[in-house]
Amino acid sequence: MRAALVSLMPLAKAVSACGLALPPSVQLMARGELGTLDKRAVNDGSLKPVNPNSEVHWTVDQNTRQMQVSDDAFIARDFARFNHHPNSTMYYTGGVVMNLTQHIEDLRLTFSTYSHAAPHNHNYQVIFGEGDWTVALAHAGGPNDGPLPDLSGNFLPPTMRTVSFDLMTIARWDGGWMMEEYLWSDVPRMYRELGVLPMPPADNLPDIELNSYTFPLSTQPGVNNAELNKAKMTESDDALNAGKFDAKSLHLSKDVKVYGLTDQPLDLNGFLAELKDLKKAFPDLHLENKPYRQIIAQGDWTATVAMLSGTFKGPLKLPPYLGSSPAKPNGKKFNLLHYTICRWQNGQIVEMRINADIFGILGALGIPL
Do residues 129 and 298 touch, judged by C-beta distance below 8 A? Predict the structure, then answer.
């Protein structure tokens, strides 16, 4: 690896600006202006009702529209119409927590690196919701036309390359205001596209997609399977925690496609093999699902927000763009936010998108490259 990639330790605190860039917020962290998730009780703000006890309840469609308006404002750099409540809280990768003032400053730093950064929000790649929650997955990107923070927090000259990647927001709304925002973006892919990491990804990689013509919100619009799918999701994660890595226990279709861990989707056998490798590296691997931080379901779709933790006690296979040899265990721990988006059919997961905090995990473990 090149000299700049000495260690991922800085990435334990490096996050994405509304999911769109990695270390602008490092500057805020260096000034001691950001909070971190590990400084709060892990279950603080845990599972909130999909309709809290509030006098004002907007519909899922209304909240979805507010999500689009918020992203329209981001694209227009119009924070007066950003739809974030003054007391809103943003949860970033790396365990970082921001208030609205910090979030907006982070976005401005992002614009200095990607002046035309924008998500594709008409239409989103995936959009659904339940109660006061929305789940949005979008293709996002833009040219890198400003100073680029490398993986050690130093600045490189603009590459003038264009990045294209997945950006996810899971948000809680109250009367048209965003109160909580969970943000994730595919930062490793961005840095591969920019040439900071090796092995640039191919264009137009397959991905999960909600499409009214092929994979709609529901294949049975008159049947509400939301509660059943949430119960099955909980059972699936129970099996994950127990190390029961088989299709029946995990409620996986024999034709399941799993996105997010590799460039090409994993099939059933490939995904089970990945889980077994992770269990060897982290024997106490645990996803906190009782309760989840949040679980949302609509039609055939579910999304989860949860804490994922583990202790590094066995060799860890790294993505090929980060190293060819397994990382050696050192006994360190991680405990970070983890996200899934799933499409269900007949009580089984047929598609799953796993949005893991890869850089955050490696940074917490102190893995040198």
Answer: yes
